[in-house]
Amino acid sequence: MEVIYIISIVAFVIIILYNLFVTSANLFSIISFCFKINSVAHYWSDVKKANVHARSIYSTIIGLVIALIAYLIISPVIFFRKYLFSTKSGTDYFSNVQKDKILLFVQHLKESLPKATQYNYQIPLDKLLEGIPPNTTLNQQLQLIADKMCVHLLLDKPIKVMTINTVDAGKFEHINGMNCIFINGDQSKHNIHQKYAILAHEITHYYLEHHNIRMANTNENEFLTEICAVYVGFGFIMLDGYDYVKTADQYNKVGYVDAKVLLEAIIQVAYVRRQNPFHIVKNLGIPTRFIARIKLKALIQEYKAFQKKKQ
């Protein structure tokens, strides 16, 4: 699929460049000729004298139309690439995740959890960063965010966040009766948004353990954790942090699932938990916003009808 993507990009770029070249040449010829016309009444006779053919005009128009069509095709492919193409290998458990599987896990969480969170919405990152001084260390910042996450998750037991360089990304475990989350502190390995996403994933492990929810299969348990992180309101944080990022002259990615799965989970959770669809659309990036609006169309209509009924 990635090969098809690359070939398509190259082909469309060539088409656009070729047509722009032909169009530019034709336009230059036409504009130059316009200055030589004696009068509008003698346009075609002047055309023949100047040996400028009408097909230059037609080919210019056709070239512009073809370039426009190519642009309209290539733009969505570029913008929606991470939502149209899976980034996992075909043999990976987390590759080609179907909508039905996501919905199955979302429904399982709905049936297994009591009141899931303090508020029923996807938390914007700005909300978690409110009140945190800009000069705090990475460890302090992650700890303050974790404290806010615990409040949102209705967890009364504290959790200790520590940044160390001996873990690959993040890890949740118990040490002497204390709930601990370890996150890789190397900021050249993962950027800050990736670290937020790692924190969200690990604190969701803690949340699921608190409610005695676990899958026997390791892969299924990790997938459940990813979906649960979205279910409890960390969807935006996960989506921002699970993209491919270039750090230290190389591309890397954290998380088990890709952005396509996370976006679908956000949509499914919105329907199951009856969340405000306008809040979701508003807080997504421009490319994702269009996809979300289409997928949330039914919920948007229901929400509008509900709001109208309240008035």
Secondary structure elements and pairings:
Layout: H1 2-34, H2 43-50, H3 54-79, H4 81-84, H5 99-112, H6 125-129, H7 138-152, E1 160-164, E2 170-175, E3 178-184, H8 192-210, H9 218-241, E4 245-247, E5 250-252, H10 259-272, H11 277-282, H12 286-295, H13 297-310
Parallel strand pairs: 1-3
Antiparallel strand pairs: 2-3, 4-5
What is the averaged pLDDT score?
82
Summarize the helix and strand pattern as letters: HHHHHHHEEEHHEEHHHH
Could you give the count of β-strands?
A: 5
Share in helix: 55-70%
Largest sheet: 3 strands, mixed
Which stretches are poorly predicted, pLDDT < 50 over at least 5 residues? 85-91
Q: What structural class do helix, strand and pairing data support?
A: mainly alpha
Using the CA coordinates, give the radius of gyration. Answer: 27 Å
- The amount of beta strand, in percent, is 5-15%
What is the number of independent domains?
2
Instruction: Identify the overall geometry.
Output: globular
| Largest sheet: spatial strand order | 1-3-2
Q: Kindly, what is the distance between the CA atoms of the first and last residues, rounded to a whole number of angstroms?
A: 50 Å
Organism: Aquimarina hainanensis
Transmembrane segments: 6-35, 56-79
Keywords: Membrane, Transmembrane, Transmembrane helix
Protein name: Peptidase M48 domain-containing protein
